[in-house]
Amino acid sequence: MPDRRPRPAWRHRAEPSPAPSSERPPSAEPSVVQSTLYRDGRRVSSPITLADTFRQLREHPDGMAWIGLQRPTEEELHSLAAEFDLHELAVEDALEAHQRPKLERYGDTLFVVLRAARYLDAPEEVDFGELHVFVGPDFLITVRHGAAPDLSAVRRRMEENPDLLALGPEAVLYAILDAVVDGYAPVVAGVQNDIDEIETEVFGGDPAVSRRIYELSREMVEFQRATRPLVGMLHALMAGFAKYGTDEELQRYLRDVADHVTHTSERVDGFRQALADILTVNATLVTQEQNAEMRALAEAGFEQNEEIKKISAWAAILFAPTLVGTIYGMNFEQMPELSWGLGYPFAIGLMGVVCVSLYAVFKRRDWL
Known about the structure:
By secondary structure, the chain is an alpha+beta fold. Helices cover 58% and strands 15% of the residues. The protein starts with 31 loop residues before the first strand and ends with a helix.
């Protein structure tokens, strides 16, 4: 963590910085959420503008400035960069957002990117926010992109604990890390509930469950990208305890945060594996259902073919006597056997022989 030492004389310009001009429309929310000066863990003042903050911090070099911004303009960040000597690469990242969690050190300033998350009950989805934190010897700047996290609770918590706040900007950073990691707990609980519901829907045959599995899997990929790098970041901070003389209380504080984020990361990995297994089971169930439907269709087709064969066989049997009767029923004077006394019995017998023969043939072939 940055050393807690007096402000170097070269870090500030001789003249006060002008208040940044905002490009936001009048109806837009102000980007400066709150700017506060602290001394010995106590709030000294809450300047309205950044220029007032810079001026009062110069007047109290033993104080600490905590500046909270939400989607700041380029002018505002450049003003902060000129006042606190922020590195241009870190400022560029804070302006563009959409960064992966990381920790960078630029001289005596620490730049931290965090991905916060919150669970939205109504749509049953996870909403991710991005937080950039600049930590210097006597200042801490937070830049939020998104609704999460809400740092007002962190500020109240630190102000209620002046001894912890008196440890400097690094103590505030640890409190922010703790708030971000604690914010993962409701998300984990909500995702666990979603997975339980998905399992019920899978075995209940809900056709829309595949889409829900896919969407939740994508959210878990984002969640994993937010938590996994954080584990390495916290271990990197712990590795610098001795070098930067981190307070023992803060060391215990950070180790506890590291334990929590490791547990969360493991849970997220478990969720991804569980969703992959559920998707496999769902695919298997869908395949089995499709096979059952195909088998039912095949059986129905087979039964239909059997019926058609029976109808065809009886049609052939009935066709034979009809053919004989039709021939002998023709009204021609010159026809053989018209005067034969045995003609009628012969025709009837012929019809019977043909019908019995066809019946025997179809019966042998299991058509009847």
